[in-house]
Design goal:
The protein has 270 residues and is an alpha/beta fold. The protein has eleven helices and ten strands. It has a domain of 134 residues: P-loop containing nucleotide triphosphate hydrolases (Rossmann fold), CATH 3.40.50. The longest helix has 16 residues. The N terminus is likely disordered.
Amino acid sequence: MDGGEQRGAAASPDLGQPVLEVRGVSKRYGSVHALRDINFEIHRDEVVGLVGDNGAGKSTLVNILSGALHPTSGQILVDGAPVSFKSATDARDVGIETVYQDLALAPDLSIWANLFLGRERTVSGPLGWLGWLDRRAMMARSVEDLDRTKIHIASVSSRVGRLSGGQRQAVAVGRAVAWGSRVLLLDEPTAALGVEQQAKVGDLIRTVSGHGIPVLLISHNLPQVYELCDRVVVLFHGRVIAELRPKETDLDSIVSWITGSAMLAGKTTR
C-alpha cells in the first residue's frame, strides 16, 4: 500500500505554510531502518497526534525533531526554512520545545526557578555583573506565563516536588511556551496520571493550541488523542502508514491501523 497516497488522502485543506514540515526523513542504524521516508506537516493552531505500537519509531522521530538525534536523510523545515540541528539547544533556538515524560523539572527548586532554569535573569548594573539574580522579575514573569496554562497554582514560590502531576505538566509546558515556542512536542504527557489530572492536561493542550502554538502529541492514551487531535499520524515499523481525522473515523479504526490489521485488510485512508 502506498503511504504517500494515504497521506495525500488525509492532507489538510490549504492552511498556508506549515509551521513544521518533515520531508523524507529516514534514520538507519547500520542495516536497521528505524524510520523510512517520513513525511508530514503541522500548521498553526493544530493538535496532531503521533501514535504507533512500541518499536514503531515514535521516540526516534521525536528525538530527531528535538535535536537529540540526526536523521540519516531527509529534511526538517520550520516556517518554510530548512533547519539542521546539532543539539537540542539548536532545536529550541528555532522554536521547537519538547516536554518529555519525565518533565525535566528540578523537584527541590521553586516553580519560578524551574521556569528560568538555565536562563536566569540578573539585575542591571554592577550587581548583575556579579551574577545577582533578579528574582522579582522572574517571579512576576512566571506568574504571567503560568496564567496562560489556566491551571491554578497557588504560588510560584512553591517547590515543584509538592505539586500534583497535572500541575507539574503545567509548569513544564508553561516553561516551553514562555520561551517562544513555535511548536510544542508533548511526549506521553498523561503517563502515570489519574483521570482528573489527564483531563487537566487535555485542557492545557487546548489552551496552548488556542494561543496559535501547534502541538505534536505523542501518546498511548488513544481516547485522549481521539478527543484532542485534528489529525492522527500513524507509524508502523518506521513508516507513516496513515493520517486519519478523528472527525471522519472512529477509535477502533485508529487501533486497527496501529496494529497493522487495517493495512493487511487492504484498507485505505480515503
